[in-house]
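Inputs:
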Amino acid sequence: MSGTTSPAAPIKVVVWGENRHEQVEQKVRDIYPTGMHTTIKEGIEENLGAGVDVTTVTLDDPEHGLTEEVLAATDVLVWWGHAAHADVSDEVVERVHRHVLAGMGLLVLHSAHWSKIFGKLMGTSCTLRWRSEEDREIVWTVDPTHPIAQGIPHPFIIPAQEMYGEFFDVPAPDELIFLSTFTGGEVFRSGMTYKRGFGKIFFFSPGDQDYPVYHQKEVRKVIANGVEWARTLRPERSVPVLLRYDTEDFYNGHGYQGAMEN
Amino acid sequence: MSGTTSPAAPIKVVVWGENRHEQVEQKVRDIYPTGMHTTIKEGIEENLGAGVDVTTVTLDDPEHGLTEEVLAATDVLVWWGHAAHADVSDEVVERVHRHVLAGMGLLVLHSAHWSKIFGKLMGTSCTLRWRSEEDREIVWTVDPTHPIAQGIPHPFIIPAQEMYGEFFDVPAPDELIFLSTFTGGEVFRSGMTYKRGFGKIFFFSPGDQDYPVYHQKEVRKVIANGVEWARTLRPERSVPVLLRYDTEDFYNGHGYQGAMEN
Amino acid sequence: MSGTTSPAAPIKVVVWGENRHEQVEQKVRDIYPTGMHTTIKEGIEENLGAGVDVTTVTLDDPEHGLTEEVLAATDVLVWWGHAAHADVSDEVVERVHRHVLAGMGLLVLHSAHWSKIFGKLMGTSCTLRWRSEEDREIVWTVDPTHPIAQGIPHPFIIPAQEMYGEFFDVPAPDELIFLSTFTGGEVFRSGMTYKRGFGKIFFFSPGDQDYPVYHQKEVRKVIANGVEWARTLRPERSVPVLLRYDTEDFYNGHGYQGAMEN
Amino acid sequence: MSGTTSPAAPIKVVVWGENRHEQVEQKVRDIYPTGMHTTIKEGIEENLGAGVDVTTVTLDDPEHGLTEEVLAATDVLVWWGHAAHADVSDEVVERVHRHVLAGMGLLVLHSAHWSKIFGKLMGTSCTLRWRSEEDREIVWTVDPTHPIAQGIPHPFIIPAQEMYGEFFDVPAPDELIFLSTFTGGEVFRSGMTYKRGFGKIFFFSPGDQDYPVYHQKEVRKVIANGVEWARTLRPERSVPVLLRYDTEDFYNGHGYQGAMEN
């Protein structure tokens, strides 16, 4: 894998959209006429301008649009999925996982909490409680110095949203940035970061196909901040490896040849 | 899944041993004549006595000894593997994973850092640097109030050991309890806890087939402490699930029926 | 300082009550006729019975009831204060601080977030947003395997309470156990643990002099769980010290004699 | 307090040097002829060039050089002290503490682990074990994606150093970046971050008056990285405050008027 990152270069972002609701449900098409992925893309561009180079791919593209070539050239992958998690091929999930461990940033949005790739990275069921009844969601910042929280009002309000509530079965996050409350009284850890391998992951729960959440200014700003944060600062793209080191040689590891009688 | 836990009852522990080195290598057989799993079992019994009910199973048992019935009756599973991680069936790994999320405790020892089950729970490569050249390992406590650190000298010394060194590609732990240094100058996060689902996981790196580590008093005490800590306090064994909740009904979730047009 | 702890012995608990509102405000006296500290004491006894030995002291006692002798014999100190934080003498705060670092457990309840001792242990302003307008508080568990969460319904509801909201200026906790939401839509990290020195600290926000919160079953259970958790497992009570160690002598530290030309 | 930060502007750094050893000990003067603070300053400038504006102040300056005006214009304060912690006035410590909570970054170097300001921010004794016998220190990275670890070899070696060893009595860090081992076999958490209020704190242990550590390239790079990381991204400098909020008014807090009969 070759890396693409240079701090001065635009961040190469790929927004992956499931793009199924948009094809089947008129309600969703009305809110996102060019697809949710396109709206998410526009929100990132709106905030980061020339600092970013955003493309979109969808589930129905060959290899879901996530070939080795595409991933090798991607700094940050943004993932939205909901109805068709099971249709994502295990081979592509393995490939994305490898690139995250090698340093590709990953933003996991809303119902992608139940995507194969997020489950594989978390190791848990990633289940939660939910209800789609137009609750008002209020998003509060609990880590005000975090880069992802910059420029975000405390709190900000999403007028109507699907409720996501605890217990959310994920590992305790490295950083808890946002908490959301809902009209019904539920609470959710709605903005969290994780590091896995050399990759940085940001989970952000607002966003649903039935509400115009990705048109909302604050949500777009959070996602853009997340993209900037998730881009690796390491110069090369490579997965961590298991290596043998001789005594007093700290820098030249040897490949692993098998465990028995080594 | 039915649970077995009652705080007053003995902790039901299963020690899973790969048991391959012992069959093939005389050196290992000399150190662990009845198998490493047996020595680990005896160390737990030595410390916890009537408070524990320990059995052993190995890779070569049918279903690796880890049937649904066995796991349902296990409070804490202790895992040692090294040469034959690949021989563990994916089906059994899925089963163990489900039981961990449902509340079964898991101790991951030494080279089991590269086992399928640990990788699945961590979401990372779990790689590290290593060298088996009789380094002295010194184990230091950095979380002195942790239950697992009680009764453990600070530091304690393992006269000869395989070196495991950083970078160890695992998620930042929930709790960092022990750090190890080696003669060569390497360092390793050697005692760490994680929670996944309703299960508690303790990784402890000392222990190798080529050294009598599991005969050492301090190591046995740490493992016994880990067993006590990892036993769930929850009364029932069940995996977290995704459920819909009506407004103002906080306790009666409804099963999930599919994402589209829900 | 001599320690008192033996796992088999009852936990020696001291509930420290400010006891000012009860003297001045009839409303508070109606809810807590024998003082809030007494109600808190009774809640602990109700849950832990013979496993605990609870006494109470108040601000108006000599040395606020917290002499060296009392603290040396205390496993866990429970602190409730509100109107008179400034009246607590700095000398007593220093003494309590020293005992926490030496291993005494500390429960910090509700408005004690702004007590001198909590501020000294946290290093932050411990400020928050608040409103006392009979909001309904719903307490959610986000760390379901934590000992303090055992036996606590998810969620549980406090019918009327003072609102405490984020941003709560405290360090990121070691463990986040409970989150609370309020009728007005605010959120608060309401149950958190910290370790400082050899001491364990549990902050729990429900509880106010104007509401019968400490009469509520679930709140009493949480506090009792907190008491059990906060009791140190270390056999001796001593503060961490700075010591010089000779090479290869890991166990015999020498006292510090001054930094210059040492 | 007015803020000074604009992401485009040079980072305003003040290096605070105790500057006592340099006056009294020829050995230290030989290593740091213009004072340790000057060497630290030069290391930051060497790495950040025009991106930084560094000045130095010392203990013997009026108000230790840390007037309200100086602090209000400082983005990041770097602190080195050892022999004269007790000579730092409590008033100045309070002032620095307030500015950290308001958003000023703070780097705490080596023996400043025992400074008043670090103790006040941590809430613990900040004690450790030590020995100054020319141990070789090896610094390992355990958080390879952290901004502070960028460009730092894994590991890097300090040929001769004072040993600092665990147990280091500080709170569990928000982020553990570096671990150090020493010839004698000791280990130390040598690079850690903390957030307090709106301020970001980086503790880095290498550096002693008796060794030319601050002349070493890797150490200088770490400190420069720390300076960049610790600069706040928030536009204003203000301390967190306790405020009352009316129902449904999330943005206009009211000042606090006293706890009794509020």
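Chain B touches chain D through 23 residues (CB under 8 Å). Flag for discussion at group meeting.
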